[in-house]
Amino acid sequence: MDKMLYVSMTGAHNNTLAQRAHANNLANISTSGFRRDFEQARSMPIFGDGFPARVYAMSERPGTDFTPGAMQETGRDLDVAIGGEGWVAVQAPDGGEAYVRTASLNVDALGVLRTGNGLPVIGNAGPIAVPPEQKIEIGQDGTISIRALGEAPNVLAEVDRIKLVNPDLKQMEKGTDGLIRFKGAEPLLADATVQVTSGFLEASNVNAVEEMTAILSLSRQFELQVKMMRTAEDNSSAMARVLQMS
Predict the structure, then answer these.
(1) pTM
(2) Can you give the pLDDT at residue 105?
(3) What is the Cβ-side half-sphere exposure of residue 188, based on CA atoms within 13 angstroms?
(4) Which residue in 64, 77, 128, 199 is a FRET match for 224, CA 20 to 30 A apart?
(5) 233 in helix, strand or coil?
C-alpha cells in the first residue's frame, strides 16, 4: 500500500508544481514582453530490486514560448518594441548581458538609460549614458539622438546606439529571474538588420483562456490523486483489521 500512496503523492506534488507554472503565466498576462513558460508531465519508471512495473509522475518546464505578443501603441517616445525578429540588450543584475523584446525606457538621475524595471540598456560600449537634454529620439536602427539643453529645435546630436541582436531562438533560455539569456559563453554581436519601433510596447504572449483551462484540468487531477491517497489509507486500515482478526 505504501507504494500506491507514494505514486499518488508524487502525482499530487507535481500537479501542484504544474499549477504554479500556469499561475505564474496568468499573473504576468499584463506584463509587457513576458514570454510564457511551457509545462509538461512525463512518467518516470522506478528501478529497484524488482521489475520496474510502477512509474512516478514528474512535471517539468521544457522551454519557453518565444511567440511575439501584440503591439500596443502608447505614443511615448521612450517606449520601444522590436519590429519583427530580434532583441534589445540590457545589463542583468549579475553584470552579464540579458535580452528583452520591449521596454519602457527612462533616464535616471545619473543619466543612465534604463528599462522600466531598472536594467541599464547596453549601447556600443556598455550601458548608455545620456547627457542633459530637452528631448530624446530613438531611431529604427536603435540610434539615440538628443536635443541638448539650450539648443535649437532642429539641432540633434547622436549620443549612442542601442545594441540590437538577432540570435537563434534555440540558443536562448529563460532564467529563474525571468530574463532571457544566450546559452553561449560570449556576448552576442550587434545585428544591423534588427529594427525597433518607438511609441509601442509588446504585450505578453500569454493566452488567459488556455492558462485557466490548464489550471482547472490540473486541479481535477490533483483531486483524483488525493482520492487515491485516501483509498490507499482505507486499504491499509482494512488490511490491519484483517491481521488483527487473524
Answers:
(1) 0.79
(2) 93
(3) 26
(4) 64
(5) helix
